[in-house]
Design a protein that fits this description.
The chain has about 130 residues and is an alpha+beta fold. The protein has helices spanning about 5-10, 15-20, 50-70; strands at about 25-30, 30-40, 75-85, 90-100, 105-115, 120-130. Helices cover about 25% and strands about 40% of the residues. The two termini are about 30 Å apart.
Length: about 130
């Protein structure tokens, strides 16, 4: 079984992200994840734009995959989202990268774009490793 298949199987247990919002893990690596979400009417606000909560869910899930796959259990402690623009395409893409990996904490940045390359949001999330 490939790492991508393992990640999809394990994180498929996050029903809100995978079932309710339809997020898909596209790529996974050491402290790295790339995910996508097809934009449907369920993700849109009254004006037809993507709801901020849907965008944040994509970022949070991408952080979870990057920080937890083949790593100690990690939970988010703080997060900051900066909305940059509105999606022009039909799909949101997220990419999470490790910035700092400490003994008990970590820091990731997540870029959100659409498939046309439109910058949607920039997110930073700090995490705490649950060491047993």
């Amino acid at each position: 079984m490939s790492d991508l298949e393992k990640a999809r199987e394990f994180f498929g247990g996050d029903f809100y992200a995978t079932k309710a919002t339809g997020i898909v893990i596209e790529e996974v690596g050491d402290h790295f994840a790339r995910c996508s979400m097809e934009i449907t009417r369920n993700h849109q606000n009254a004006y037809g734009g993507v709801m901020g909560g849907a965008t944040f869910t994509l970022a949070d899930y991408t952080f979870a995959v990057a920080s937890n796959f083949n790593q100690p259990q990690t939970v988010s402690v703080t997060s900051q989202i900066n909305f940059i623009g509105m999606a022009k395409g039909k799909k949101l893409l997220s990419e999470s990268r490790l910035i700092k990996d400490g003994r008990t904490t970590c820091l990731y940045e997540i870029d959100i774009t659409d498939e046309l390359g439109t910058k949607i949001a920039f997110v930073t999330i700090s995490g705490m490793k649950i060491i047993k």
